[in-house]
Each structure stands twice: as structure tokens, then as C-alpha cells.
Amino acid sequence: MPSRTSKFRGSTSHGRGKKSGRGAGKMGGRGNAGLTKHKKMSVIKYDPLHFGRHGFKRPQKVVSSKTTLNVGDLDEKLDELLRLGFATKQDDKVRVNLINLGVDKLLGFGKTENSYEVIVAEFSERAKEKLEAAGGSIVQPE
Question: 68-139 — its CATH code?
Fold first, then answer.
């Protein structure tokens, strides 16, 4: 079937009326054009939260997150902790001061071979169980 284009040569609209032949004229604009004007009812019906700000964001000075360390990481970082002075060896135990290291809480993920005496402000029950099973203990500062 031959093209119909040749039939419309010389016609400004190619049989589409005034605006529908020009770009996105029949659609009322491309994309989000006209959402506050001629497409307002569709916004109200299908996307009522499109405009404006919703919810809130907490100020950063209010938001605080705890620095944590796992029990398994104590064995991995033992050499480094001893070298930097955050840990000391006393008899069979290794005394680790996590407060000076900047750790707020000790968590119980991982395994430990050595017995540690850990100084930390907060700890999980699982961390305490694992340290005591290895012959260690947790000391909370006053």
C-alpha cells in the first residue's frame, strides 16, 4: 500500500486538524506539562501528593548512631590493638579498652579464641556469653 504522505503535500495539517499534527499538541504537552493548568484534575485524582513537601527530616544534631564492634573482630584486630596501645596483655588475658578506641557497644557476631577483659559502656547478651565462654569478662566503667 503506498504512503499517504504524498496525498497531503501542500496541506498544512496533513488531515489532523490544527494542533494535533504539531509535536505533542494532541496530548496537551509532553511529560508533566500543564499539571497546574489543563491537567489539574488528573493530578488531583491520580497523584494528589505530587506537589508540596511531605514528611520531615530529623536534624543531624538530634540523630545519633552508636559505633559498634563485634566479638569476632577482637581476634582479627588484636595485633593492631596491641600495637596502638588500646589493648595490653596481662598473664593469660588480654585487656581491651574499647572506650578509648571510640566504640560504644560490643556485639556478639563472630567467634573468639582468646580470653579478653573488655572495657565497654554497652554490650549485647550474646557478646557477654561468648566472652565468658572463652574465659573472658566485660567491665563497665563507673
Answer: 3.100.10.10
